């Protein structure tokens, strides 16, 4: 049996019209609420996962981290400190703006600054004579500290409080710690030695106070 062409065309139009009616059928109020609740729950779970991941990354990337000193046997002690690392550059009579890797330790009694020239694995610089440390925060506040003390025999600059004679106490460490504590964002640091070497780098003060408090726990 053959259908006229016009009849076939009408059948096709009616068929697709029925499909569109089915597809465009409106959801009931109850079904709409179910879909809305489901979408809301899924979005809340997604937001929670994204927030947790952002917090995890922020924690891992925090500039200051709590550490524990080790003894001569490489075993952890009860003495805690916080540490940050940064990069900068140094200049002296032999080079200009060469790579500098810096580690800064802060504990209950003092602070150490370790300057590694050219690469991270080089030995920290050991100053002969006095080091001058200048610091400036984003608020424009500045301090200057002089020290002739080494962290240990391997090098590093030690910043501490000490008394030469009664009535002549110096509180360099307290000034150093309190300056970072009250600062926000980046702190510019410049260190000079007695032989015209200059070391420049930034310290991020973010999270310093919170992390430092963990030393006493």
List the helices and strands and how they pair.
Blueprint: H1 5-23, H2 29-60, E1 65-70, E2 76-91, E3 98-106, E4 110-117, E5 131-136, E6 142-147, E7 150-152, E8 155-163, E9 169-171, H3 172-182, E10 186-192, E11 198-204, H4 208-213
Antiparallel strand pairs: 1-2, 2-3, 2-11, 3-4, 4-8, 5-6, 5-10, 7-8, 8-9, 10-11
The best one-word shape is elongated
Average pLDDT figure:
86
Q: Beta-sheet strand percentage? A: 35-45%
What gyration radius follows from the Cα positions, in whole Å?
Answer: 32 Å
Helical segment tally?
4
Number of domains in the coordinates? 2
Structural class: alpha+beta
Listing every helix as H and every strand as E from the N terminus to the C terminus, the arrangement reads: HHEEEEEEEEEHEEH
The biggest beta sheet reads: 11 strands, antiparallel
Share of helix, binned: 25-40%
Describe this structure in words.
With 217 residues, the protein is α+β, with helices and mostly antiparallel strands. It has two domains: 5-60; 65-216. It has four helices and eleven strands; from the N terminus they run H-H-E-E-E-E-E-E-E-E-E-H-E-E-H. The chain has helices at residues 5-23, 29-60, 172-182, 208-213; strands at residues 65-70, 76-91, 98-106, 110-117, 131-136, 142-147, 150-152, 155-163, 169-171, 186-192, 198-204. Strands 1, 2, 3, 4, 5, 6, 7, 8, 9, 10 and 11 form an eleven-stranded antiparallel beta sheet that branches. A hairpin with a 5-residue loop joins strand 1 and strand 2 (76-91). The radius of gyration is 32 Å and the shape is elongated. Residues 1-24 have low confidence and may be disordered.
């Amino acid at each position: 049996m053959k259908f006229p062409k016009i009849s076939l065309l009408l059948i096709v139009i009616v068929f697709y019209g029925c499909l569109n009616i089915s597809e465009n059928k409106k959801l009931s109020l109850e079904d709409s609420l179910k879909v809305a609740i489901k979408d809301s729950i899924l979005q809340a779970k997604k937001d929670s996962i994204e927030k947790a991941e952002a917090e995890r990354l922020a924690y891992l990337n925090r500039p200051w981290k709590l550490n524990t000193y080790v003894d001569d046997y490489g075993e952890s002690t009860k003495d805690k400190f916080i540490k940050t690392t940064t990069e900068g550059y140094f200049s002296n009579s032999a080079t200009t703006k060469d790579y500098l890797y810096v580690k800064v330790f802060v504990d209950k009694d003092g602070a150490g600054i370790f300057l590694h020239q050219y690469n991270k694995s080089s030995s920290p610089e050991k100053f002969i004579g006095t080091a001058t440390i200048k610091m400036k925060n984003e608020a424009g506040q500045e301090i200057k500290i002089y020290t002739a003390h080494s962290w240990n025999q391997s090098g590093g600059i030690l910043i501490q409080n000490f008394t030469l004679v009664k009535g002549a106490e110096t509180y360099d460490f307290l000034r150093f710690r309190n300056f970072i504590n009250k600062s926000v964002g980046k702190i510019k640091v410049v260190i000079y030695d007695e032989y015209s070497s200059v070391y420049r780098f930034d310290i991020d003060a973010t999270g310093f106070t919170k992390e430092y408090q963990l030393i006493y726990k």
